[in-house]
């Protein structure tokens, strides 16, 4: 698409930080006030990091499930007047008096909620992925551009890119320690995320929300909602995005089991074709815990970079390097991201990683599209898609 030609051609980069003289000021000793949109498991896991590691205050909450809102309100001692409930609760929170919003809702809602935050002049911290479809990705890209114009931090919580050992692995790949990359092996193997979170008599829409990570529309399917972690690292290490993909996959029959939730596929097989003749073999499953691992291997003419989310990172070959036997990627990366975000807000030096994040989101959508169609799909074809996924939920339980 011509409107974002530079973006589509750009290679994955690090954070962009504005010079102090170009950013608005913020009192270094002031307490940053944040509002949490999404009071489910992920929101309650990450919100305490803002308090514990940065001294920020959680002053407002928003959710469409009243029980989640009330329990989180008690946890953070948020005033009743700052606890927003219902379909427009996120917008009400964004327009209230605070410095930043933290988006921890199902993926489907991220794009609209990020727009609310930027429109209201708030800094935005959002969970990955950013959107379930191409129009949603373009919306997030536009919101990021507006945030940049307003000098607001607009930041996506990808854990791997801030880990020092991962950054060192990238540096060694880029400087040629494994030679010219020729092939990549990328996979995300895991058991079923959990049993069906629905309860007897639960309204069907609420059951879908409770199991959103297994719902195609609400989560984007597992290749977007979860597998994006390794897809993002592949793009980073290969310094770009695929030009096309061919895929397949499917969903096993879970009927009659405690894991029969949602309609997402439970395995994908995709070939990604990157520039310069580099191919990446991607596969994922959520079938059993017999073998679980999140891995990105980049093979070059002089060696292999072997990296595992939450595990070992090394280079074997002409330039051997042992980076780590085990890395605390999940929590350590999230804590580092929270610290970076609040530090940027306090220093008045906005940071942005939305362009490379959207690239990875779109790469996951490319793989999903190729698998659904069971044929080759090019990046340009995928980018022309105007299909907007929709739901019919009442968003008030």
Features:
single chain, 397 residues, alpha/beta, Rossmann fold, 2 domains, six-stranded parallel β-sheet, 14 helices, 36% helix
Describe the structure.
InterPro entries: Gfo/Idh/MocA-like_OxRdtase_N, Gfo/Idh/MocA_oxidrdct_glycsds, GFO_IDH_MocA-like_dom, NAD(P)-bd_dom_sf. One of its GO terms (molecular function) is nucleotide binding. This is Gfo/Idh/MocA family oxidoreductase. Residues 33-155 form the Gfo/Idh/MocA-like oxidoreductase N-terminal domain. Residues 167-303 form the GFO/IDH/MocA-like oxidoreductase domain. This protein is α/β, with parallel strands linked by helices and 397 residues long. It folds into 2 domains: 2-160 and 333-353, NAD(P)-binding Rossmann-like Domain (Rossmann fold, 3-Layer(aba) Sandwich), CATH 3.40.50; 163-327 and 364-383, Dihydrodipicolinate Reductase, domain 2, CATH 3.30.360. It has 14 helices and 17 strands. It has helices spanning 5-9, 41-54, 66-76, 89-94, 110-119, 134-149, 164-174, 204-210, 216-219, 222-225, 228-238, 329-347, 354-373, 379-383, and strands at residues 16-17, 33-37, 57-63, 83-85, 100-103, 123-127, 154-157, 181-190, 244-250, 267-273, 279-286, 293-300, 303-308, 313-317, 321-324, 351-352, 376-378. The strands form 3 sheets. The protein has a 9-stranded mixed beta sheet. Helix 2 (41-54) links the parallel strand 2 and strand 3 (57-63). Helix 2 (41-54) crosses helix 12 (329-347) and helix 5 (110-119) packs parallel to helix 6 (134-149). The radius of gyration is 21 Å and the shape is globular. It starts with a helix and ends in a 14-residue tail after the last helix. Mean pLDDT is 93; it is low at 1-25.
